[in-house]
């Protein structure tokens, strides 16, 4: 699973961080990864392991493929679960990131 990802990503080189951003507040989440940027609601310093894998997914597949992956699986899952939260949790990239986070420290 993670063997195909470059997990040696460095802030300021491979990705950037926007802290205190409006986007996560608007979506009612703490953080969102998009492309080569992490958008944080707060000004905390740490990068959650879960979000770090999302950065690696964007680096490996590109923004267009990641977005299409989410849209396809959200639509398919919504037909099954009939709610956004469950549909989102069952997107394969989300499941993969949760498993990566559960493995322990990076």
Describe the structure in your own words.
The chain has 106 residues and is mainly alpha-helical. The chain has helices at 22-27, 49-61, 63-81, 84-89, 92-102; strands at residues 16-18, 31-34, 37-40. The chain has 5 helices and 3 strands. A 3-stranded mixed β-sheet has the order 1-3-2. Strand 2 (31-34) and strand 3 form a beta hairpin. The longest helix has 19 residues, at 63-81. It is globular, with a radius of gyration of 14 Å. The two termini are 15 Å apart. The relative contact order is 0.16.
In short:
By secondary structure, the chain is mostly helical. The protein has five helices and three strands.
What profile does the largest beta sheet have? 3 strands, mixed
Structural class: mainly alpha
Which regions are unreliable across 5 or more consecutive residues at pLDDT < 50?
Answer: none
Helix fraction? Answer: 40-55%
Strand order of the largest sheet: 1-3-2
Proportion of residues in extended strands: 5-15%
- Report the radius of gyration as a whole number of Å: 14 Å
Q: Per the principal axes of the C-alpha atoms, what is the gross shape? A: globular
Q: Alpha-carbon distance between the termini?
A: 15 Å
Instruction: Give the number of helices.
Output: 5
Mean pLDDT: 92
Which H/E pattern describes the elements? Answer: EHEEHHHH
How many extended strands?
3
What are its keywords?
3 strands, globular, 106 residues, mainly alpha, 3-stranded mixed sheet, 10% strand
Fold topology:
Layout: E1 16-18, H1 22-27, E2 31-34, E3 37-40, H2 49-61, H3 63-81, H4 84-89, H5 92-102
Parallel strand pairs: 1-3
Antiparallel strand pairs: 2-3
Helix pairs in contact: 2-3, 2-5
């Amino acid at each position: 699973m993670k063997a195909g990802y470059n997990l040696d990503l460095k802030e300021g080189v491979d990705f950037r961080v926007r802290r205190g951003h409006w986007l996560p507040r608007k979506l009612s989440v703490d953080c969102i990864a998009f492309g080569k940027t992490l958008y944080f609601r707060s000004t905390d310093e740490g990068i959650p392991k879960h979000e770090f894998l999302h950065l690696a997914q964007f680096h490996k597949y590109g923004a267009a493929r990641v977005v299409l992956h989410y849209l396809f699986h959200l639509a398919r899952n919504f037909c099954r679960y009939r709610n956004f939260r469950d549909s989102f949790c069952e997107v394969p990239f989300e499941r993969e990131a949760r498993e990566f986070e559960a493995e322990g420290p990076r």
